[in-house]
Design a protein that fits this description.
Helix content is about 15%, strand content about 20%. It is an alpha+beta fold. It folds into three domains: about 60 residues, no CATH class; about 60 residues, no CATH class; about 40 residues, no CATH class. Strands 1-2-3-4 form a four-stranded antiparallel β-sheet, with no helix packed on it. Strands 5-6 form a two-stranded antiparallel sheet. The protein is flat and about 75 Å long. The termini are far apart.
């Protein structure tokens, strides 16, 4: 697929008003012919398409990098994610990702990370372990699958619908 679409059949699939009283409105388009998607930024005051260089709150579009001292503050401070995010000028999700070890995990490895919290109302997904092997199956016999499954062997057991624990 090309980097752009030459068709004229497009459909708006999403709109977004920027906050803080900005006059910019974002439109997400999709081509009806090839499925190509792109964003268009329209300034309602200028009444034309624009290329934004800053968001409405005057922060650059690229992500904000935190210093090692700010990461240490996030890991040691007891304040909640929202208050700490406002103090540092980032979104609360960034603070949460640092605290759970999904971001900046190479900085301050000696400081403890928190486990991600799961809501009690949400069921915990059961994931079939990938450590089970065909050799543990009741149908494994003489170094092969007795059901003649051609893919059998190694860790295929985690995907096999015939897998049965040998008792």
């Amino acid at each position: 697929m090309a980097n752009y679409c030459t068709h004229s059949f497009r459909r708006i699939i999403n709109t977004y008003n920027w906050r803080n009283g900005s006059t910019i409105r974002s439109y997400r388009f999709r081509c009806k012919c090839c499925g190509y998607r792109w964003n268009v930024y329209y300034d309602k005051k200028l009444k034309r398409e624009v290329v934004p260089t800053h968001k409405s709150d005057n922060k650059p579009l690229e992500t904000r990098k935190l210093t090692p001292e700010e990461v240490k503050l996030i890991l040691t401070d007891q304040r909640d994610n929202v208050k700490l995010a406002r103090l540092l000028g980032v979104v609360p999700q960034s603070v949460s990702q640092i605290r759970t070890g999904r971001a900046y995990k190479d900085l301050w490895p000696e400081l403890p990370r928190r486990a991600a919290q799961v809501k009690a109302s949400e069921p915990v997904p059961t994931i079939r372990s990938t450590k089970i092997t065909c050799r543990d199956c009741a149908h494994w016999w003489q170094k092969r699958c007795s059901l003649d499954v051609p893919e059998a062997g190694g860790t295929f057991a985690s995907e096999c619908s015939f897998y049965q624990v040998d008792e």
